[in-house]
Amino acid sequence: MGGLNATLSIGMQALDAAQGAIDATSNNIANADTAGYTEEVVQFSENPLSQSENGVTGGGVTMDGIQSVQDELLDVQIQQQTSQESSASTESASLQQIQTYFTTTGTDIASALTSFSSSLAALSANPTNTATQQGVISSGKELAQAFNTTASGLQSAQTSANGLVTTTVAQINTLTQQIAQLNGQVGQLTASGQNDSSAEDQLNEAVVQLAGLTGVAVTQSDGEDTITTGNGTPLVMGDQSFSLQTSTGSDGFQQVLDSNGTNITSTIQGGQLGGAIQMRDQVIPGMLSQLNSLASQFSSSFNAAQTEGLDSNGNQGQDFFTTSTDSNNAAADMSVSISDPSLLAINSVGSTNSNSNVANLSAALTEALPSNSASSAEGTTSAPLTASTALTDGSVTSITDSATGQTFSFTAGASSTIASLQAAIASAVAAGTLSAGTSLSFNTAGQAVISTTTSGDTLQVASSDSVLGEFSSTSGQTPAKSYASLVFDVGNAASNASTQATAIGTTLLQLTDQQSSISGVNIDDETANLIRFQTAYQAAARIVSTIQELNTVTMDMGSSQSY
Amino acid sequence: MQINSNTTPDLLADLQRSQASLNTALQEVATGRSVNVPSDNPAASAAMVENTIETGNVDQYTKNISTVLTTVESASSALGNVVTALTQAVSLGTEGANGTNSTANLQAMATQVQGILSTVVSLANTSVAGAYVFGGTANSTPYTADASSSTGYTYNGNSDQTSVAVGDNLSIQVNLPGSQIFSSSSNSVLGSLSSLVTALQNGDTSGIETATNSLSSAIATVGNQQAFYTNAETQLNSQETFLQQDTVSLASQATNLVGISLSTAATDLTQAETQNSAVLAATAKVLPDTLLNYLQAPS
Amino acid sequence: MSNTGAVDRDQREHLKTIRALVRELDRAMLAISRNRLSELEDSVAEQEILTARLRGIPGAVRDRNDMHRVALPIDSHLAKEVAAAHAELQQRNRVYEAVLRHSGHSASLMVSLLDSFRGNFSEASGSRLRHQTWSCQV
């Protein structure tokens, strides 16, 4: 590190030092109770010998600025940790609320799947009995209800997060105005050479508060604070503040804009705002997507089993479940479409009459969900589509622009992926067989969207049956396993957020303790102290690994099934 | 080193921690479970989803077996009795065909065979808890008297087979329709019996022989059909044993995943209460009274 | 079986050790939050002893089982308590790991800063000493 200004005269330094000491003492007395007040300690010490090419130069008495620089570092650490803690707490709170919908309460999906599954098994023992038939319909309704409730729980958590975005932006704007004002005060006092530690402390406190609302980067030069978001959007520069704005996006949620009107929503990280946006735009949509995918795949699978058989009236089985044409509401809108028990398709079609279509109905629960389902709805995916998602042979043969009727043919082969479909579309556009500006892209829910630059229409992708079908990635799991994965994801996310929030809370306490107590007298002692801490942390980290290993080792005891 | 005089944040943090522990301990005692929400143990929660569904299924499969087992046992037993009856008929027929019988003897034999026919019909109409065993899935009496029929009886059941789910992806067929056993076109038991009756009444020796031969092969056929039921019985019984073991291991898995022994929960609670009191006491010494009034003591 | 007594004793010891380790992790985190170095060092030393003890248990169990050629049964009630304590330990460990990570990062930054001060410099005069432009390699 290069030397800071090393050429001031000794005399000037001595005068300033004396003045500083007097000011610091009177500040101490007056401000003992103000939060964020840090005691200034004036230390007199010999200047360390300066070594330069020209030999050693001596120094005079000077204020030892180490403490204040350390405090600056602590300030930065506290800001960053405050942002992270706040973001984790926000997510944790949201996830705690969400996970109640995934807890076994009797009305949750797991309980409903259990009843539905049992009712089908009971049906197999007594297929023509009206009571067992009715049992299937009732438990089917409960299952649809459980999907509805869970979806609406996720959606309302999303709405809450959205509300938090609005209120947090308002809080941020109030705070940045305060900070700008304080900046101005401090700047004026500095220019006139006065001690301004109380205004500085207020300023620091306000910046920490701001960090709790959104991640910030703070730089100081010439006594001016410049505060931006982590991505560089200006919030405060000197005595000027820049307000954030919100506006309703196409998905109905509040977008965050900078003072120029540029959408910065996806760049915001940390703090309450970052946490709320993360939940609203990433975490919850991911969960909803899994849920919707399960709802629509399971409904299709069960309906297919119904249509394979004959009902008690001798007619082909009808759809049992209906789900929304809007794939984003597959779970929210799921319902049972039959109420007459005789419409259950218990009989299989064939020369030997048997009730073995009941086995097919049960199989919808015990077998892996099919990968591509033909339905008239736009698809959702259990895992978001990416360029490398495989298109199974024959699954897509034509794309029709519903607006213009224009058709584009594509033959999926053994190694087709969405990327190859994208490439084919690009070639077709280049060759003029598709409208210029047509592109295949993905929206936030991981659905394939075909759009043109003019209308931005979402085009439906036709399956090989010419039935408007869906892209769905291979689920390959039974409904139970699929739901269990979702429960794990929810629980794990909630646990991680809570762990983070707790842990960072602990380190914040440590940092605040460091800030409000004065550490070592000289650099060497203090460095030695910190290295002792580091050594202790390293030893502790080894123990953390050992404890993690114990997880698998304890299996040998036969006393637990650890996960 | 200056002593940090600002101890309030630490104490409040301690208090929050100990209150949280207390709440958890209370909940554990109340519910007897250490996993109440997925974040308590995400992997265990996920595993419990499948455990719960599987446990429900196993319960139902067990019920199914127990329902069906009675029916299958009854069917097997009925067919055993049918074989006995047919054997008797065959020995009567053999005797009747030997040409040494008087008309009166033959008439008496005819009456006996008629009796056997009635017995077989009532065996064909076996019911368990109001449901007919040999009627397919129909609810009406399988065989009723019908003068216009050559056998004297008409079949009112259907030919539906029932496969009962007794395991995931395991269904066992548990019935044979009566029409297949008693009145099949290739080898009608009832037909042969009533032919024998007629032949005996008419003293028609070759008719008696024909009918008796049919009945002999019918015995083998019914024997096979009885084997179907005893086989089903065996399968059901062994599946029942398997399900019993499954029930135990599912229950054990569930307890390992989410259960907590009550004594542990009680101990945790006592410790948490003690600690909470200690923290409250320490806090009381430092904080002014007014603030302390806002702190809720555990009830 | 006379040896079930020994098995249960071992399991109870096992349980005590796991619970003691959980308490030590809490003690360490509290020490960190209060910046008490000696307390942290004491706790880490205790943790080392306890984890060594826990690591040795499966071996002891195996040895005993080998002697008897069969896995000796464990009281199921006790087994459940061990499982619950173990789950709690793993949960606590995750928080502990995160605390160490964050605090360790801060300590590294501080050490780098102080290292850069061991060079030579003297400050500008003036009372706004709290705000200086500095940089250090981390």
What does this structure look like?
The complex is a heterotrimer of chains A (563), B (299) and C (138). Chain A is built from 10 helices and 19 strands. A 4-stranded antiparallel beta sheet of chain A has the order 5-6-7-8. A 3-stranded antiparallel beta sheet of chain A has the order 16-15-19, with no helix packed on it. In chain A, strands 1-4 form a two-stranded antiparallel ribbon. With 563 residues, chain A is of the alpha+beta class. In chain A, strand 17 and strand 18 form a beta hairpin. Among the domains of chain A are: 1-64, no CATH class; 383-471, no CATH class; 522-563, no CATH class. Chain B is mostly helical and 299 residues long. Chain B has 2 domains: 51-253, f41 fragment of flagellin, N-terminal domain (Up-down Bundle); 261-299. Chain B is built from 8 helices and 6 strands, in the order αααββββββααααα. Chain B has a two-stranded antiparallel sheet. In chain B, helix 1 packs antiparallel against helix 7, helix 2 (42-96) packs antiparallel against helix 3 (103-124) and helix 3 (103-124) runs antiparallel to helix 5 (189-202). The longest helix of chain B is centred in the N-terminal third of the chain and has 55 residues, at 42-96. The model of chain B is unreliable at 1-5 and 289-294 (pLDDT under 50). Chain C is an all-alpha fold. Chain C has one domain (3-110). Chain C is elongated. Chains A and C meet through helix 1, strand 2, helix 2, helix 9 and helix 10 of A and helix 1, helix 2 and helix 3 of C.
List the helices and strands and how they pair.
The complex is a heterotrimer of chains A (563), B (299) and C (138).
Chain A: H1 10-30, E1 44-46, E2 50-52, E3 55-57, E4 61-63, H2 66-99, H3 109-125, H4 130-191, H5 197-213, E5 216-221, E6 224-229, E7 234-237, E8 240-241, E9 245-248, E10 254-257, H6 271-307, E11 309-310, E12 321-322, E13 335-336, E14 347-348, H7 357-366, E15 398-400, E16 407-409, H8 418-431, E17 439-442, E18 448-451, E19 461-462, H9 479-516, H10 523-553
Antiparallel strand pairs in A: 1-4, 2-3, 5-6, 6-7, 7-8, 9-10, 11-14, 12-13, 15-16, 15-19, 17-18
Helix pairs in contact in A: 2-4, 2-5, 2-6, 2-9, 3-4, 3-7, 4-5, 4-6, 5-6, 6-7, 6-9
Chain B: H1 8-31, H2 42-96, H3 103-124, E1 127-128, E2 131-132, E3 143-145, E4 153-155, E5 163-167, E6 170-173, H4 178-181, H5 189-202, H6 205-258, H7 262-286, H8 289-292
Antiparallel strand pairs in B: 1-2, 3-4, 5-6
Chain C: H1 3-33, H2 37-68, H3 76-117
